[in-house]
Write a structure and sequence with these properties.
With about 150 residues, the chain is an alpha+beta fold.
C-alpha cells in the first residue's frame, strides 16, 4: 500500500482467499484492505495516538440518514455527552479532494451537527471548525488536542 502523510503506524494484516485484510481496532475485526480503508485505518490511529481520543468515543462506518437517504460515514468522534466532536470523510489516495467532497461531508453534517470536520485522502488533510451562527466553516491547520 501507498505511503501516506501520517506518522508510521503498525497494523495487523491477514491474508485469506487472495485478499489482504487489515484489523480495525474500533470494529474489532479484519476488514478487506482497499485504498480507502488504508486511509481510514490511518485516520483511526491518528485520532487514537496523536489526538489522544479514547477508543470508546470513535465510531467507524455507520449509516446516517441524510434527507431520507441512507449514507455511510467513514468515522465519527463523539463528545462524552453524545454530541459529535469530529466527522471524518476518507477518500482513496488517488481521489482528489474537490468541492464535491466538501459538499458530501457538509450534507452528512446537516444530520450530525459536528463541531469539527476532517477530509483526507491520506496525502492531503483538511480540518474545519464549524460556525453554525454564520453558516460556514473555518479551515484550521490541524485538529485540536482532545480534552475530556
Amino acid at each position: 500500500m501507498q505511503k501516506l502523510q501520517f506518522p508510521t503506524y503498525t497494523f495487523r494484516f491477514k491474508n485469506s482467499e487472495n485478499k489482504v485484510s487489515i484489523f480495525d481496532e474500533i470494529r474489532k475485526k479484519f476488514i478487506i484492505l482497499t485504498p480507502e480503508e488504508w486511509v481510514r485505518q490511518h485516520v483511526v490511529r491518528f485520532l487514537l495516538e496523536e489526538k489522544q481520543i479514547p477508543k470508546s468515543l470513535i465510531n467507524v462506518e455507520k449509516v446516517v440518514k441524510v434527507n431520507g437517504l441512507k449514507k455511510r460515514y467513514d468515522a465519527v468522534v463523539y463528545n462524552s455527552d453524545g454530541s459529535i466532536y469530529i466527522l471524518v470523510e476518507c477518500k482513496a489516495p488517488e481521489v482528489k479532494i474537490t468541492q464535491s467532497v466538501f459538499d458530501q461531508i457538509a450534507r452528512y453534517n446537516l444530520a450530525m451537527d459536528s463541531e469539527y470536520l476532517m477530509v483526507t485522502n491520506g496525502l492531503n488533510h483538511y480540518f474545519c471548525q464549524m460556525d453554525y451562527e454564520k453558516e460556514k466553516y473555518d479551515f484550521l491547520p490541524d485538529l485540536p488536542q482532545y480534552k475530556n
